[in-house]
Amino acid sequence: MNIESLREYCLSKTSATESMPFGDETLVFKVGGKIFALTSLDTEPLSVNLKCDPEYAVELREQFDAVQPGYHMNKKHWNTVLINSSIRESDLKNWIDHSYELIVKSLPKAARQELGK
Predict the structure, then answer these.
(1) CATH numeric code, 3-114
(2) Of the candidates 45, 39, 73, 79, which has an alpha carbon nearest to the alpha carbon of residue 59?
(3) Region 28-38: what's the mean pLDDT?
(4) Where on the phi/psi map is residue 32: left (φ > 0), alpha (ψ -120 to 50), or beta?
């Protein structure tokens, strides 16, 4: 997955938005005003920070070398995924979905209803 396909997939999520609140180097994806993914545009290899259930986060880190504790994030709730040949695109999409759903579940009931959740 490259930056464009990552961007397209994140924006395909219901009511997802993108912004650059931390400067021109960091692309942020939100739903309901809360971050579900962010990526640095100036680092190689491409990586993305994703929200994750704490127990699942540890499991993924143990299973995949390319999944690390969230860089500059709460390491209990965020993973940084290095997007390289060791990570299948289907796995990455599942992890983006997981992150998005965690954020949606944390939104107030009225906001969830607006999203149809």
Answers:
(1) 3.90.1150.30
(2) 79
(3) 96
(4) left
